[in-house]
Amino acid sequence: MIIRFERSGGFAGMLLRAEIDVQELEPHEREEIHRLVAEAGFFELPPRLQSAGGGADRFQYVLSIEEPGGRSHTLEVSEEAVPPDLQPLIERVAYLARRSRRQSC
Amino acid sequence: MISCILPPYMLDRIAENGTEEQRAKSAETARISELMRNDRQAAAARVVIPRAMAAPARQRNVYTANNLSGLPGTLVRAEGSAPSGDLAVDEAYDGAGATYDLYWEVYQRNSIDGAGMRLDSTVHYQKGYDNAFWNGSQMVYGDGDEDLPPSQRLFNRFTISIDVIGHELTHGVTQYTGGLVYINQPGALNESFSDVFGSLVKQRSLGQTAAQADWIIGQGLFTSNVNGIGLRSMKDPGTAYNDPVLGKDPQPGHMKDYVTTTSDNGGVHINSGIPNRAFYLIASELGGNAWEKAGQIWYVTLRDRIRSNTDFQGAADLTYAVAGELFGAGSLEQQAVKNGWAGVGINVTGGGEPTPTPNPNPGCVAAVLKFLGFK
Asked: Could B135 and A12 be called an inter-chain contact, meaning their C-beta atoms sit closer than 8 Å?
């Protein structure tokens, strides 16, 4: 499973981008990701989730997941529109992305 | 008290087309009108405007999200209670207080909505949340990269920098006044007003003149692992950081370097460098405390003139017109505004909007419109 993650906006206005090969993660992290993808119902989500809610300095996410069997889906979602079931996956992937940006350097 | 007659259609018109603040006030006015009608059986709607409102006072609540996503979370510190000992809670409390004080003591604005709204802040939002935001009704702050090993952390807690707090609270003020949409140039202006007043909160709390201030947004947000002094430089956009992991500060400080992008709502945190630098240039030319003259021009423009779709050129023209109204046509202050915008590649057009002719006999309608924030 390959996860592509892009986070833009936020107070800092910086782009955070990562490509994660889930097979290369530690076994417990790999299992967690598979579980969170299933719990989010990720492949059943629409391609775009926006919210009319106001506010400022929120993040925008683009999350793309490709399964070895060929199933793939890309989701564009603004932070305030993230469904509760998807939130843990977004947080976990953002963590992996933040962790990898320092390590890859 | 002003007591007078206002046609109901005018309240309806405001309800449809006014800013959020104007709508809130007109709704209150309509409510009072109804009370008055019942009381006096008057045929026309009667409007009462409280001239002396209750003594303005800071009202702050700081909550913790306990590293989860629920808002507002658990109340930790209410107005008047002692410091909690939690650094983020106490910084959010003090920063909201300093921001309230700038708006009230310098600009006579009573809180975000101009009517004493309570300032709610939530800290410890989620885990590893390197951001702060305004959600439309409150301020929210993350702890940075606290969930990574110290050697990998790039961001500290977002309450560490008082201008971040002033920035978020000002998003609320903008929502209740100019209502700038959060995309492209109006969005970059929205961001810039937040940076301007955030920086002014910091400068005033430190007692710094325009010349003494660092004009950095988010100083202290980066850990020592990052090569940078802060997130943005109003004085010299594009120079705040240059780091192997984070890259280089992408902000332009001149229209010739304007960035066209679809990301970040059309670069609202990028192109804000242009109006940010214009403000810095104006405040520096005027000298002294930036929150006094330059800040006053910016505040009155945001409160009375900015509309949801105002662009950079519009903001330049409006600040120029307001400077003329506040300090006189052709004054040094108005000249400084013109020079500041020219310094970022924007030439104010004509004399700005014509100065409204003062009504020699301001009647009820004028008083009500003024109360509602219309010129």
From this structure: no
